[in-house]
């Protein structure tokens, strides 16, 4: 296409066109016959309607400079540049490039991106019976629109960054100016700017890269697919992070209690919401400790079992050749295999495998004498209890930490369970989220923050934002002094 002895061939711009030209979806052609201008673009990145209706009909007449073309086109964000990296970025983000074959490699970049995105749908991992039914999608601009619709204030600030040597992923840091703590915002921005990685596919990548303790199994930032939940977190003073191409946003700083809080709690009456939140806490403790306690008691402390219950256990385990430890491990592994298979298969097949597989394996294991029906009930109930957490990340952690508890229960009995629990608590005490305590308000003890932690008090009692977030403006609303009621004869 180009003359071999042309000086244009030797330029950096010519090298860029040569590399792009090796791809089948890259097009370059003369604007019209005898025109000094050429057009280049990736046809898979641009919208054909914009090219054929808004660009080419406008520049049919003879034009001699890029400035004249720029004046003719009624399109925003036109730019003339001779910077090769800028030209490359423009090409890769859905721009047409007008250029001359001879002379300086100055180009006119005309945006005509073809944006492919799915429609806003209902949440899948954070579904609620009542409340809004919108969820984030893979488009960063759409997600920001969903948040701004709920917080239509100029103080809602968005800072855009570019991360990834190859992917060049757009990252947006979102916060409410005047409420969010500047240290939290600066910490997030500095950590994102310090990321050295080639490709960022999802916001979960960022969550793993900017957390305080990268070796901890516990998530230190909360992810959500609900715009209403994220708007509430931003209004509290938290900082949110979006990644283009990801349908979830991450936010911090958070505490462990945050992972037991569902947004539906705020849509219910406060005493009902508090009861369900306590139920989740108890369910998680049961899920972690139930199987290990069973192993410890049957191995070392069977004298603690009441006589009526002991006779039941003797009857159920009379023909089982395996010790309680091996019995529990086999059942826990079977449950995890069923759960993993159900998650990886297509939805309808996964549900069938989970239900049928669980019934068949459970029944066959009891009839074959490999496990007792009592332990089967304990393990199945513990698995169900682990699903009560509103945030999926925490349920994965619960699945993992059950096995160290079972192992130490086999080695040391209930003492081993207590030792493992002590190690777990010491780890949680050392954890931080963006430098803030992870166990707040339990440690350090902050009684005022209990109004929305283990229980949820009425909104009238939540006039102040939590201390953990260090919000610049802690006051949500001004509490008015209670007024004396004037009684009348009807009262």
From TrEMBL:
InterPro entries: Spore_Ger, UPF0353/GerABKA_families
Membrane-topology descriptor: Multi-pass membrane protein
Family statement drawn from the similarity comment of this UniProt entry: Belongs to the GerABKA family.
A single BP term in Gene Ontology: spore germination
Organism name: Peribacillus butanolivorans
Record's keyword terms, sorted: Membrane, Transmembrane, Transmembrane helix
TM segment ranges: 278-300, 350-368, 374-393, 405-429
Protein's cellular compartments: Cell membrane; Membrane
Coiled-coil intervals: none
Protein name listed in UniProt: Spore germination protein
Gene Ontology terms: cellular component: plasma membrane
């Amino acid at each position: 296409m180009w003359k071999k002895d042309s000086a244009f061939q030797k330029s950096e711009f010519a090298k860029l066109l040569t590399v792009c030209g090796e791809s089948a979806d890259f097009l370059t052609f003369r604007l019209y016959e005898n025109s000094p201008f050429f057009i280049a673009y990736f046809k898979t990145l641009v919208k054909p309607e914009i090219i054929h209706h808004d660009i080419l009909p406008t520049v049919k007449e003879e034009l001699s400079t890029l400035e004249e073309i720029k004046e003719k086109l009624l399109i925003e964000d036109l730019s003339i540049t001779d910077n090769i990296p800028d030209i490359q970025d423009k090409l890769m983000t859905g721009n047409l490039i007008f250029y001359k074959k001879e002379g300086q490699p100055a180009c006119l970049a005309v945006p005509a991106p073809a944006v492919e995105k799915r429609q806003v749908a209902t949440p899948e991992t954070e579904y609620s019976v009542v409340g809004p039914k919108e969820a984030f999608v893979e488009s960063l601009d759409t997600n920001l629109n969903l948040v701004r619709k709920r917080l239509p204030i100029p103080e809602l600030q968005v800072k855009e960054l570019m991360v990834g040597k190859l992917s060049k992923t757009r990252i947006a840091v979102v916060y409410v100016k005047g409420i969010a703590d500047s240290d939290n915002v600066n910490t997030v921005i500095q950590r994102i700017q310090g990321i050295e990685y080639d490709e960022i596919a999802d916001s979960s990548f960022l969550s793993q890269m900017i957390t305080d303790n990268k070796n901890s199994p516990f998530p230190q930032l909360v992810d959500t697919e609900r715009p209403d939940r994220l708007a509430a977190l931003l209004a509290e003073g938290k900082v949110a992070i979006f990644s283009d191409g990801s349908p979830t946003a991450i936010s911090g700083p958070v505490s462990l209690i945050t992972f037991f809080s569902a947004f539906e709690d705020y849509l219910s009456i406060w005493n009902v919401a508090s009861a369900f939140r306590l139920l989740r806490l108890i369910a998680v403790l049961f899920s972690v400790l139930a199987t290990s306690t069973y192993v410890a008691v049957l191995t070392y402390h069977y004298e603690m079992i009441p006589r009526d219950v002991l006779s039941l256990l003797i009857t159920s385990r009379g023909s089982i050749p395996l010790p309680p430890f091996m019995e529990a491990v086999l059942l826990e592994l079977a449950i995890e295999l069923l759960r993993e298979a159900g998650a990886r298969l297509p939805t309808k097949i996964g549900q069938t495998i989970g239900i049928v597989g669980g019934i068949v394996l459970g029944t066959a294991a009891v009839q074959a004498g490999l496990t007792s029906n009592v332990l089967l009930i304990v393990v199945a109930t513990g698995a169900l209890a682990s699903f009560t957490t509103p945030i999926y990340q925490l349920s994965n952690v619960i699945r993992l930490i059950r096995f160290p508890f079972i192992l130490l229960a086999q080695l040391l009995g209930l003492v081993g369970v207590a030792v493992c629990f002590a190690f777990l608590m010491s780890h949680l005490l050392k954890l931080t989220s963006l430098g803030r305590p992870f166990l707040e308000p339990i440690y350090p003890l902050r009684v005022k923050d209990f109004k929305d932690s283990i229980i949820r008090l009425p909104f009238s009692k939540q006039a102040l934002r939590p201390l953990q977030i260090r919000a610049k403006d802690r006051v949500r609303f001004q509490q008015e002094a209670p007024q004396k009621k004037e009684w009348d004869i009807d009262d």
